[in-house]
Specification:
Blueprint lengths: L1 H14 L11 E3 L8 E3 L1 H4 L1 H4 L3 H10 L6 E7 L3 E6 L2 H13 L13 E5 L11 H19 L3 E8 L4 H16 L15 H14 L8 H22 L6 E4 H6 L2 H12 L2 E4 L2 E4 L10 E4 L8 H13 L4 E7 L5 H11 L7 E6 L2 E5 L2 E2 L12 H8 L1 H9 L7 E4 H4 L7 H19 L14 H11 L1 H11 L3 H20 L7 H24 L9
Parallel strand pairs: 5-6, 5-11, 6-7, 11-12, 13-15
Antiparallel strand pairs: 1-2, 2-4, 3-4, 8-9, 9-10, 13-14
């Protein structure tokens, strides 16, 4: 409808000999039905161009509009043009939803653009914590939304399975394994002390007895990597998060990609040696300081394989790269963009999203430790206490770049105070009505739907495609989460004022179709943020 009104305004301007090619015509959905269905400030935009009072401009535009879908047009305030639409488009949309079902709301703003979204990518040295949970919820929801909006999306987990932290993992597991045989062994500085390390040591003992006491660190590293990575994968699957590709950092070394990047950088003239280390001149590309590629002890920094990994993403045909990093990775943005620029790519090929900190709150106090284990609060703890749906919704409902308090008491409430419960209850209530009615409805004309509550509800359903488009372009899943809450609220308000099942057969059938369309829209929106639509509660 917005696009239709834009074209209507363009045609009206052409009749006034105004070239609309370079004019950004904005159509907004009105917040108050008394001001119509849609509004535009185009008359005020044209004041400087036409050197005329905006209300006079608006009057001329309106005089050139004659479209059967418009009931009336009014000028408001300094020159806003308010459009009151005939409601046929809302009724036609009911049939559209019923026909498209799970595809309702799908748009094509991506035009098949290949996008790779990297998220979580936690070091496989321990369990996932709540910070990873927020990044996982965002990355997965963004992937779903982008795909629904016509992008060709690849979801990637980058496995940090090379470097010193993996050696420390192997040494840490080895030390715990030796302790099980009363053989003391020192855990190095930077080693891992979590319960999961002890559990892995026990598993090795159960499987191999004492036959691995003389094994090298490599054995314990690989054993631990496999176990911890599998645990991460299982927890993420429980959280409704999956990946298309698991890219190993070690594979970048094994394939020669890291060495190739080093060789290519050396040819650019952008590297130099200082204090026995090899540096890259990233300050020439907007970075706050130059970055070390090879330390003075000969070891590669993480930066070098990171460059290779991002170039590998591009080699696979991806046109846009999105990384979802934790709050402590803000300094990675310019250094990665700088490296890509050195290789001849534009900075905006890479988009880095920073997930701000999450504070778990219960009884008004911050929760840092799990009561169950006494260890740091993990993703698994969150799923056990708050549940997957509440966790996914709460994360999705907040913009990623804002710090958030996760209210565990609210997340576990079985009441309308809990937003995810409120939304799911709307879907469950509709499901119950449809189950009670349990008849096939064949009508596609609507003559009795006219109340302000029904029209408001249908307007919310109609807006879904625009919401999907906006969320995809702005890369903001919270737009979907907030929308579906508003849609659920519109249904609850409608249901409080009007019955659905009555003795009037046509009246009832029209409303059965209407609430079925609402149900599909709620379900599709929840699916995009990884939350289930429950038929019973």
């Amino acid at each position: 409808m917005k696009e239709k009104l834009i074209n209507i305004i363009k045609n009206a301007l052409e009749k006034e000999n105004v070239n609309s090619e370079d004019i950004n015509i904005i159509i907004e959905k009105t917040k108050d039905n008394n001001h119509g269905d849609y509004a535009s400030n185009i008359a005020m935009q044209l004041t400087k161009i036409l050197k005329t009072n905006p209300r006079e401009i608006a009057t001329k535009i309106i005089a050139n509009i004659n479209d059967e879908s418009i009931e009336k047009i009014e000028i408001a305030g300094p020159g806003f043009i308010n459009f009151f639409m005939k409601k046929n488009y809302l009724f036609e949309n009911i049939n559209k939803v019923l026909e498209e079902k799970e595809n309702y709301g799908r748009v094509n703003v991506g035009n098949g653009e290949k996008v790779i979204i990297e998220y979580v990518s936690a070091n496989p040295t321990g369990f996932l914590h709540i910070g990873h949970a927020r990044g996982a919820a965002y990355g997965d929801a963004l992937s779903r939304i982008k795909k629904f909006a016509g992008y060709n999306v690849t979801r990637e987990y980058y496995i940090n399975d090379a470097g010193n932290q993996m050696n420390n993992l192997g040494i840490s597991i080895n030390a715990r394994y030796h302790e099980l045989f009363n053989i003391p062994m020192e855990i190095p500085e930077g080693g891992y002390m979590g319960k999961e390390i002890i559990d892995i040591a026990h598993e090795i003992k159960e499987e191999f007895g004492d036959t691995k006491l003389d094994e090298t660190t490599e054995f314990f590293k690989q054993y631990g990597l496999k176990k911890l990575l599998k645990k991460i994968e299982i927890d993420l699957e429980k959280f409704n998060v999956s990946f298309d590709e698991w890219t190993s950092e070690q594979s970048l070394y094994d394939s020669g990609r890291v060495q190739k990047v080093l060789d290519e950088l050396s040819k650019t003239g952008k590297t130099y040696e200082e204090d026995g280390a090899l540096w890259l001149k990233t300050t020439e590309y907007g970075d706050e300081k130059n970055r070390v590629l090879i330390k003075n002890d000969g070891l590669y920094t993480y930066y070098l394989p990171d460059i290779a990994g991002h170039l590998f993403k591009i080699e696979r045909g991806n046109e846009h790269l999105i990384d979802v990093f934790g709050a402590d990775h803000h300094g990675y943005i310019n250094r990665l963009k700088a490296a890509l620029e050195i290789f001849g790519y534009k900075r905006d090929i890479l988009d880095v999203k920073i997930a701000q900190m999450v504070r778990m709150v219960k009884d008004g106090k911050e929760v840092k430790m799990s009561k169950r284990t006494g260890n740091a609060y993990t993703l698994n703890d969150l799923m056990l206490e708050a549940g997957v749906d509440a966790s996914r919704y709460f994360f999705a409902a907040k913009s990623l770049d804002t710090q958030m308090d996760f209210d565990l008491d609210l997340a576990t409430k079985k009441s309308n105070d809990n937003p995810v419960y409120y939304v799911q209850y709307a879907y469950a209530r509709i499901s119950s009505i449809l189950k009670d009615y349990n008849k096939e409805v064949s009508i596609n004309k609507y003559k009795t739907i006219e109340s302000e509550y029904a029209i408001d509800l249908l307007n919310k359903v109609y807006a879904f495609s625009d919401i999907v488009k906006s969320a995809a372009l702005k890369e903001a899943p919270h737009i979907i989460a907030n929308y579906v809450y508003e849609l659920a609220n519109a249904f609850h308000v409608y249901y409080a004022h009007e019955r659905v099942l009555t003795d009037d057969e046509n009246y009832t059938k029209e409303r059965i179709n209407m609430i079925t369309a609402v149900a599909w829209t709620i379900k599709n929106a929840l699916t995009l943020i990884g939350v289930s639509a429950k038929e019973e509660m």
